[in-house]
Amino acid sequence: MKLVCGQCGEVNGITRPDTAAVCQRCRKQLFPGRALALTDETFQRHLRIDETPLLVDFWAPWCGPCRQMGRAIEQAARELAPDIRCAKLNIDDYPRLAKTRDVRAIPCLILFRSGREIARREGVASAKQLAQWARRQILNTTGKHHGRRKSVSRSRSK
Ligand SMILES: [Zn+2]
User: Fold this and answer.
1) CA 11 to CA 8: how far, in whole Å?
2) How many whole angstroms separate alpha carbon 111 and alpha carbon 109?
3) Domains, the chain, ordered by start
4) How far apart are the CA of 90 and the centre of ligand 1, in A?
5) pTM value?
6) What angle, rounded to 10 degrees, do the helices at 64-80 and 127-141 form?
7) How many CB atoms lie within 10 A of CB 71?
8) Measured between alpha carbons, how far is 50 from 26 in angstroms, rounded to an integer?
9) Each residue of 72-92: pLDDT tens digit?
10) CA of 146 to the centre of ligand 1 (A)
11) Ligand 1 ion: Cβ-proximal residues, 5 Å cutoff
């Protein structure tokens, strides 16, 4: 599977996720045990190429609850590795991205898999709650890769 290095952006091919895996170019850990700080560019790159589910914390420095969430996501990063990678995105620095993703209230956590959003939640949660929630979403969507439409609206039709 393909894994984008959070440090240098190199695309690494690994046989299976492993917390000890290091980047073939910069030798840094691919699962560093903390949330990756994403930019516009690295966000797109991870989404496009990386094959590990990605949990992104959309936050801003002026938001009190975001700071609490910030600590939780760092801890969740350790708990979820190597199944899910955690990242943070400062929406003050990348407002366009927040808009494209329809982030209206922060902190907002969006879980991506294979380049698309599979779940989101707003508001503060503990690291444990976050980790449980993320794992449950992954389990729920396993085997349904192609079933989801691009629209985010929740239609009740079957
Ligand atoms: Zn690297």
Assistant:
1) 9
2) 7
3) 33-141 (3.40.30.10)
4) 22
5) 0.88
6) 60
7) 11
8) 17
9) 999 999 999 999 999 999 999
10) 31
11) 5, 7-8, 10, 23, 25-26
